[in-house]
Amino acid sequence: MKLVIIGGVAAGATAAARARRLDENAEITILEKGPYVSFANCGLPYRLSGDIQKRSSLILQTPEGFFSRYRVKVLLKTEAVAIDREAKLVKLRSPEGESSLPYDALILAQGGTPFTPSVEGVDSPNVFNLWTIPDMDAVNNYIKDNNVGSAIVVGGGFIGLETAEAFIKRGLDTSIVELTDQLMPPADPEFGALIAQAFESAGASVYTKRSLVKIDYEAREAVLSDGTKLKADLVLMSAGVRPNLELAKSAQLVIGKSGGLQVDEYLRTSDPSIFAAGDMVELTRRADNAKVRIPLAGPANRQGRIAATNALGGAMRYAGALGTSVFKAVDHTFAQTGLSEKAALAADFKVRAVHVHKGHHAGYYPGAKELSLKLIYDEDGRLLGAQAFGEAGVEKRIDVLAVAIAAKMKLSDLAELDLAYAPPYSSANDPLQMAAFAAQNDLSGYSSFISPAKGAALAACAGSASQDPAENASAVYLLDVRTFGEYCKGHVAGSVNVPLDELRDRISELPHEKEIVILSVNGFEGHIASRILRQKGFAKVAYVTGGMKSMRLFGGFGEAEGE
Question: Exposure string (b/e) for 147-169, b if CB count within 10 Å is 16 or more?
Answer without folding.
Answer: ebebbbbbbbbbbbbbbbbbbbb
